[in-house]
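Much of our argument rests on the idea that a fold can be written as discrete symbols. This step matters because it turns folding into a mapping between discrete strings. The record that follows shows the chain in one-letter code together with its fold in token form.
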Amino acid sequence: MLEYCRLHDVTIQAWSPYQYGFFEVVFLGNDKFPDLNAKIDELAVKKRVSNTAIATAWILRSMN
């Protein structure tokens, strides 16, 4: 799907990209994902940005 959209200049719009599951809450700071959040927080400190910035970069990078 992503490849088709790239080839045909179709813009993809993500709905609630920080949520997991269909009706769940955000994954940032969620106790259900301790390893993921530890890594995101580690990178945020290293890069001197927010954890949301790291998550956004990760989401955008996975679309390329």
The longest helix spans residues 34-47.
